[in-house]
Amino acid sequence: MTGGLLAAPRAAEAQQGEKVWRIGWLNTSPIPVPGSYNPVWDAFLQRMRELGYVEGKNLSIEYRSSGGHVEPLGAAAAELVRLNVDVILVPSTEPALAAKRATTTIPIVLSAGTNPVETGLVNSLARPGGNLTGLSISGGQVAGKRLELLREVVPNASRIAVLMDPTNPAHAVNLRETESAAQKLRIRLQPVTARAPEEIAAAFSAMAKARAEALIVFTDPMLYSQRSRLAEFAARNRLPAMHMIKGHAEAGDLMAYGPDYRDLYRRTAEIVDKILKGAKPADLPIEEPTKLELVINLKTAKVLGLTIPPSLLQRADQVIE
């Protein structure tokens, strides 16, 4: 009995002695709630478990959100640096820029950045050269494909509005890539801005005045949080809308074409694993999407009076009816 009592503390000490890795999560969007429906974040945690990292055992995650605004990101990033986390995980470009300003030593892993070279995050995709690596979702070919897919549904569209946040550096890159593709297709783009939710109604009024025939939305946490409102405004204005993330199509907009974010987050976990095992971000190339998905909301198409070509429906990864 005495031996058992003495062995118990030793077992607890051994368990406590296991290294607990600390990841800092930095974003503008709300902190993930355990048990809630969040397939993208769940994909990251699931892959981390497969790699041997379990929250509450050998993994601790420090969540920091700026509450939907960009300005507080700097303070949130500085707090993670003070906590001396092992890795800072950033879902998109704006949190990545804040993390880069806060530290040059703690590794930063980007899950879905827009052209990290143009936005100043890395020196090159092949050799990032600093303390940041991860995945890029940008590319002129993808921007061109979105326009082509939208044109298949609305073949006569020559004026297409682009909804963007002018304060988001990633959106400036997206606009240049889309403009380049639009010129080849002889499409005139109409950039319309919304910096906050209260500016969305005015943005759609501007589209109506310009007689836009379709819409492309450059998503970010603010616009994604307003996806149901965006779908309502697009339907009210009879605008077929193309998005980058399928959550917009699931919320009621017509189409989405872009990376499979669940796959991106699983690959993010693999990059984090490499860094925790000693790899340097400077030596890990920026990776690009290997899976792109097309989602079509057939119910919305019927509301808008549009006929989706059968060939396009066959190519869709998901059709919402």
Question: How would you characterize this protein structure?
Answer:
- The structure is a single chain.
- By secondary structure, this protein is an alpha/beta fold.
- The chain has two domains: 2-136 and 260-291, Rossmann fold (3-Layer(aba) Sandwich), CATH 3.40.50; 140-259 and 293-320, 3-Layer(aba) Sandwich (Rossmann fold), CATH 3.40.50.2300.
- It is 42% helix and 19% strand.
- It is built from 13 helices and twelve strands.
- The strands form two sheets. The protein has a seven-stranded mixed beta sheet, with helices on both faces. It has a five-stranded parallel beta sheet with strand order 2-1-3-4-5, with helices on both faces.
- Helix 2 (39-50) links the parallel strand 1 (21-27) and strand 2.
- Helix 5 (140-153) packs across helix 6.
- The termini are far apart.
